Amino acid sequence: MSEQKREKMSWQRTVLKVYPFVILAAVLLVFGILTGGSLFSSRNLENILDQSFQYLIGCMAALFIFAQGEQDFAMASNVALSAIAAAAVSQISVPLALVVALAVGLAIGCICGGMYAKLPIPVFFLTMCIGNVISGFLGPLTNYSSVRTPVSMLDLDNAILKLAVAVVFGVIIYILYNRTRYGKNSRAIGASSTVAKLSGINLSKYKFAAFVFTGLAAGIVAFFSICKSGGASKATGTMFHFNVMVAMALGGATTGGPKVKFICAIIGPLIISVLTLGMNLASVPVGMQNLLKGALFLCVMVLSDRLSKFDID
Amino acid sequence: MAILNKVKGILFGLILPIIVYAFFSILRPAVFLGSGFGTIYTVLVQSITTCILAWGMYYSMTVGALDFSIAAEMILYEIMATIYYQMGGFWLMVVLTMVSAFVVGAVKALIKELIAVKSMVVGLGLTYVLASLGEVLSTNRSTVIGGDATILAGAPYNFIILIGTGIIMWFLLNKSRFGAQARAVGGNLALAKAAGIKDHVVGFKASLVGSVFAGIAAIFTLSRGAGVTAQTGLTSMGSAFSSLMCVFISMFIGKFVNTTAGIYIGAVSMSIISIGLVSIGFDSELNSTVTSAFLLVLMTYTIITGARSADKVRREVAAARIRKDKNTGSNS
Amino acid sequence: MKKLLALLLALIMVLSLAACGQEGGGTQEPDNTEDPGTSEPDEGGDEGGDTGLVNFRMGYFDTGSQDGTSTPLRNNLVAAIESLGATGVPVQPAESTSDAYLDALDTLLSQDVDAVALPWVSFMYAGSPAAVKKCEDAGVYYGFYWGPAMEDLGEDTLSICQDSELFLGCFYQNETDAAYSAMETLHNYGCDQIGYIGLAASNEMQENSRDYGCQLAIEDFGMEILVEQRDTNVTLTAEGGATTVENFLTAYPEMDGLIIAGNTQFVMPGVHQAITAAGREDDFKVAAIDFPDDMATYAESGVLVYDSGGHVTGPVYLTILAANIMNGTPLAEGGQSYNQQYIKLTSSEEIMGWMEIEDEIVYNTDELLQCLQVNNPDFDLDAFVEMVESYSYSDIMERHHSE
Description:
Shape of chain A: globular
CATH topology of the largest domain in chain B: ABC transporter involved in vitamin B12 uptake, BtuC
Number of helices of chain B: 13
Distance between the termini of chain A: 11 Å
Strand content of chain A: under 5%
Order of helices and strands of chain B: HHHHHHHHHHHHH
Order of helices and strands of chain A: HHHHHEHHHHEHHH
CATH topology of chain A: ABC transporter involved in vitamin B12 uptake, BtuC
Number of domains of chain A: 1
Largest sheet of chain A: 2 strands, antiparallel
Mean pLDDT of chain A: 90
Distance between the termini of chain B: 48 Å
Structural class of chain A: mainly alpha
Oligomer: heterotrimer
Helix content of chain A: over 70%
Number of helices of chain A: 12
Largest sheet of chain B: none
Radius of gyration of chain A: 20 Å
Low-confidence stretches of chain B: none
CATH class of chain A: Mainly Alpha
Radius of gyration of chain B: 22 Å
């Protein structure tokens, strides 16, 4: 390969590696200026942490499935159903509510994972359908009202607890993703499922495991959601799967395989939260906010796709 | 003879909606039989929007891409149509809406072709952006039209739109070079490229056709409702799923009837089911559950039978090769 | 290394901006009532300009939608904030869900608002305790509009706000009466075989009160509801409204009236279109709750014969209460319930009459300034209650159009 070509590839690869950080820095800079610095007030920093918590958990758990080049579109409905189930038992016992949230989340994750492993249906389609199946009966299930929780649960909605949970969950996921075969084999499947299979990797097992993680994350997010909002309804977790997908793309995980790094699941949620809060503080109308987020997502997809052919050794 | 076979095919294809109608007639005779032709007319008209969207969606599926953003596109065009109506009345609304469908559709198709990886994720992103664009355009603006612009919702114009769009769909798919190229790209991309077909151009055109169909559906739907509300986020996916269901039903009855008619038959069946479930007191929110579960089963069946057919073909090819080798060996 | 440097550099830049920048500011108040979407730099200091009033920051939720209820609510609130020397701090929730409203409330509270108007219907029984707790923790005055009376707020919410000095009160409408009047009007037009479009029946939404009102009318007038449509997937679109009426008329040709008890602003165009397409304008009548956009068209054709809406002054009243507190003359000790009135229009002619004044600001600057005890010592709690309860079409006509 010529020196010139090597140099040309070099800046493209650099852009691919650093663009999430550049986006985060740009967002902080732009909205820091537009809001006159109020973005960095202690209350708003707390808001950023609070609003990014659910996406941090969701993105970290979704690393395995993203590494395989897929997404879980049943997460939103999973969060809603887990939250409703947890809220229903919260009047009996708050710890029981947590157990129920995790159990329901895991159960749905296992159903999705089992079907993904065994049926030859594209996972996008499979999880969309499962999500719709669940969301369709949530209204009649709750009689179109909210299932309320005890007021005492509002005290669990605090930044310190969420930070601790995020850190502990993050450490566990980091170890599993970077230091065990779960992560390694998921990335191998994402790079090439044919080669992975021929290498002796049990595809069904890792496909199933990926959904177990997302199911668990849905349970955690569901529990903290009901702590925050005092209840659950069919609208809980709306657009959660989409925001996870956008966060991962902004964080650098636009395709599967080895490109999906742990840091993507940290940077992406932060970008989303800072962007959303910044636009709110700058009085950007919601329609325009959604448009900018969507446009940014598409730009990242195009950029990443165009430059990915240079990302070879 | 060919015409007789075609008529037989259509009659066989109609068995599905007839069975569904008969089923609900037993459960709710007052609604399905008591009102004479009224219910049938309502079903036929209410199927039109879903059908036109499904036709548009089918083009993208032909080239191997699934386009869920078509429903969000339709809503965007409806909002644009209300703006054009307020600027200059009915005819300006129709002309500019179709021009907008062409332009926005071209941009959308370009974005899709710019991203080489054909991922559903891109489709979702486009859905989100199109929905947001609709939201932005409708903010602080009235999105209703006057009675004079609702003429297309009534007979005979509604059926003229349906039949006209259907003819275009059938012609493009079955009689045009573009349709043949689209099927080639969707069937075997490597072979199509080897044959000199530019897959990006075909993909672009397929997406553009879908957008034009979304524009037609938008004008019709707006005429029916005389107004539109922007749908945020991915809410429009529900409509897209209904249209997808029609496509799968048409694949199911594909043996008996061509795709174009099959999709309309699918839309009619879905409409009967929807009215029927409500008439028997079924919570209409559960429609989503029933539709998606059915879609999952149908898709599983389609993929498994498709895989089995492909396997059967491979086995036959392998067996033919072995026979040929044996013959060659015995001759020498 | 490059990534770290890029991030470090950006952080240093923005932190230095933060050190120079102001705390709490950042959003602005719309500059005039005709175009409430635009904004201008915040020029308010502690004293509200020429009025000599204390400037305070009034937070509110702006859905950004253009319909017959949201637009006048926004315009009237902005006018009241300006008149009373306050600074408006709007926030737009991302979605119409309780979670999104709670996130939006967090954003409001981070901007150092002094008081906030909470739409109870967006939080409901589940979300309102969380909303109230946030306001209490932030030390911000708060009150509800579009909600129930205090005793129906729910035990959890009531336990927090009942004895709180920060609670301004709650403004509720008589939903039962609105629905009863709607049904009564249909009966007066000879329509007794009714179709129903509304929100899902549940144990917490105002739909229950409206359902109760309908039930009372059915018993009193011998009417019958033949069929209902409560699926929000259908009733959130105009085409859904058209489809619903087509199905109603197909299944029940004897139906001669329709009551729209929810999502009126979405379904009304389609409902009207379907009725006129069926040629039933003369004998099929519609009564609605909440004002849709373009109401004149539906009244002109004779289809819409009753509408109750215009309940857009709740945030204005909350601003008056807050302004009195900020200026050192609170009208009441603690919060209480106030019965906010609907504008009830019981004929097509009344609807057409209302359309001529629908864009007017309900209370002009002079009237609002007289609601502050610092300007008008006679304006006490009784006067405030009378002001709230006298709100009506005739009240507006008398105040602004009596010649």
